[in-house]
């Protein structure tokens, strides 16, 4: 009986193809949107997490707080402070000053505003960031305060296009002064990390930065490395304790570890995915209302058919089952089409956005199951209305 009822339902839907398609449209859009949105959220989260995790969970960033930036006591952030942090924090392996200056890089007729970072040889190991061509800052150029520079991959694309920058001279305009450097290396392409987008930065020896650009021992912050990932939390606590004692106010500094950033990003992306998925699920409810509407129309159109079936011995449950299965066919087929469209949309958008294509099987199961529940919920009233029709009234209906 179930198979026969299913065949009758399919034939009924097939007899009004356009109406059937339009009634399924809300379900198709809803299921497809939920799957695509969850996939996009998961893929983008994985990409961001991978970029940050690539630097290691034992990296800690220390910056000045807004109160200290606005005060005249910012000189407390000095080279000597890095030594103090290392001495007073057993869980910290090393502390490296963060020296940055924003200015105009000029190569021939091309110029580009960029950030120059004064650093040392350990920087590349700390950030797991190495040159693709040439070499990075080494101890010899640091000792000699040489006028050399290493360019990020995006800077090379903008300033040199198809030219080889190695060995060429490049100018840096900063605070009304112009400095000339020799390009000794080009860094590999890398995603955003705890210190920002590394690809649009340039790197010079720390001693060159201090002697020529800054002409002081003041720094903008520090990058610390814990002894291990397991000791990262302990290292943050030790640094916070030292900084509070040294500066006197917790608002005078900001400390961020990779783990904290990862937790924050994961929480935000998950919340956004759930919110957008919930909004997309509303269209499933709208689709369910469309199914109820079309089933009520179907009951009205087939009143005489219902009367004949009842006169021939069909029971109330048979009529109820017939229209419930028909409603389930609408939502089930619509849900299946929506799953396919969701996969396709997620794949296309992931290629455009250049993040991993990830479709969570649980989101597919939940979206499809919800579409079936929608079919049952919104199909019950029309089915009960059909089942409760009196045979005589149904046969006399015109």
TrEMBL record:
It is found in: Cell membrane. It holds the Pfam family FtsX. Residues 279-390 form the ABC3 transporter permease C-terminal domain. GO terms for cellular component: plasma membrane. Residues 20-240 form the MacB-like periplasmic core domain. It is a multi-pass membrane protein. One of its GO terms (molecular function) is transmembrane transporter activity. The chain crosses the membrane at residues 21-41, 274-299, 320-349, 361-381. Keywords: Cell membrane, Membrane, Transmembrane, Transmembrane helix. InterPro entries: ABC3_permease_C, MacB_PCD, Macrolide_Exporter_MacB. Its main location: membrane. Belongs to the ABC-4 integral membrane protein family. This is Putative ABC transport system permease protein. It comes from Orenia marismortui. The lineage of its organism: Bacteria, Bacillati, Bacillota, Clostridia, Halanaerobiales.
